[in-house]
Inverse folding.
């Protein structure tokens, strides 16, 4: 795969608030986000489509109902199974 760059989505691990891309988008996007969430879709195989959605979720990409879990380590998107 070719890469253009890496974008971090950590909650509070940025060096400064302006580097927290999700926080900046949630606070300043035009039009504004419907919800302060992002969703990641990964296909089954490397050649399948993948996407990240900001401000909501695409129900048609979901295999079942959404499940919310608490973040395990503050600042990171880690959770326990």
């Amino acid at each position: 795969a070719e890469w253009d760059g890496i974008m971090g989505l950590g909650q509070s691990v940025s060096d400064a608030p302006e580097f927290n891309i999700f926080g900046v988008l949630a606070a300043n996007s035009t039009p504004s986000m419907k919800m302060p969430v992002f969703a990641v879709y990964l296909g089954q195989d490397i050649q399948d489509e993948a996407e990240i959605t900001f401000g909501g979720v695409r129900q048609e990409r979901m295999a079942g109902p959404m499940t919310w879990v608490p973040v395990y380590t503050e600042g990171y998107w880690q959770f326990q199974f």
Q: What stands out?
A: The helical segments are 21-28. The mean pLDDT is 83. The beta strands are 38-42, 50-54.
